[in-house]
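**Reference record**
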Amino acid sequence: MTHAKKLLASTSFEVTPRSWKLFLSRSAEGAGHILPGTKVFIAHIDGVPLKEMVETAHMLRLAGADPVPHIPARLVPDKGALQDWLSACRGEAGVTQALVIAGGVKMPAGDFSSSMDLVATGLFDRNGFTDLAFAGHPEGCRDVDPDGGSTQAGAALRWKQAFRDRTGLGGIADHAVRFRQRPRARLGRPASPVRN
């Protein structure tokens, strides 16, 4: 296998239901260029119906990809709706992986405000999901730590790691989880490498 093929075999990319449909409308054979097993994350933007998310996951599965839908906590109204979302993704598109996030809206639609709230329900495991990814926020996130620090983001990351260790779920990780926050380099001076 060439270096380029090895690199492509380990990549993932992200679409929205709208961008995937647009891509297919402009390039009928485009889906055929996806390497089998490529992880394709499906961004769930506020206002996108669940039906479109599931249809996109199904189309990606037919193209040979492994669809990984975003499940944003703040867009899920209640536990029953989460069950419906997960069972539709699993049953209609064979989804076994998800990126579980808080979601970029200020006010939750219902009972959930964080990714941890969603996974604590146990519904991912009960619906046959085998891999969950979480955002890591290596540069901080003002949605999580409004003061610009990393106290809450660090606590959330420790919770997610403990969840992974306890349940075995979390086999894939957003690449951001693997990096530690460090001060940015000053202009003209390189930052020191992060050592794990």
In short: Confidence is low (pLDDT under 50) at residues 171-196. The two ends are 30 Å apart (CA to CA). The helical segments are 3-9, 17-26, 50-62, 79-93, 115-119, 123-126, 151-167. Residues 17 and 157 are 29 Å apart (CA to CA).
